[in-house]
Design a protein that fits this description.
By secondary structure, the chain is α+β, with helices and mostly antiparallel strands. It has two domains: 137 residues, Jelly Rolls, CATH 2.60.120.10; 46 residues, no CATH class. Helix content is 48%, strand content 23%. A hairpin with a 5-residue loop joins β5 and β6. α1 runs antiparallel to α4, α3 packs across α4 and α5 packs across α8. The relative contact order is 0.17.
Amino acid sequence: MIRTNSELLSYVSQIQRLGKWGIVEEEFGPKNKIIEQDQRYSQVHLIKEGIAKCYISDDNGREFIQEFLGAGMEFGELEVFTGRLSICAVESITHLTVFSFSYADFRALVKTDARFNHLVMKALADKIRYKAPRHSYQHSHPIEDNVLRLQELFPDFARVISKKDIANYIGITVRSLNRALKQLEGAGKLK
């Protein structure tokens, strides 16, 4: 549920300590929109600590949460490769500390550092690989199963993530989520 990438985080932490690539640490409080959908940016971010949500808003303003991002997850990198506007918005859920790269430094690292390049390509492939099974599971299982799966993957999900965000992640209404939570609590299945 909350995606992490300790290998990429460890490597970027090493690079940042060298001070050669202009990688800076930034902090954001909860509910801070770091990237807006359909905008142009000039930085890539990698989460050092905290949780953020990556989502798309439709024409009616409904959010579809692509994924929850944790330590080691990057965002803003797709736009470096495509040169297009941002696909998703990214907003902090908890206090967030990130490493920020300029596009120029990110591109230079991808071109000159084979290890960094490999880790970025692997991270992009993992993002793609993760989405299809998650969406398939969510559409082919009842809401209660999806909630239990969230609990298994992230036991504190209900304490850390709002009901609205959980519902948007599963692709249901808050009302349907509340009904499922009540049913699971009544059956003694929620911790």
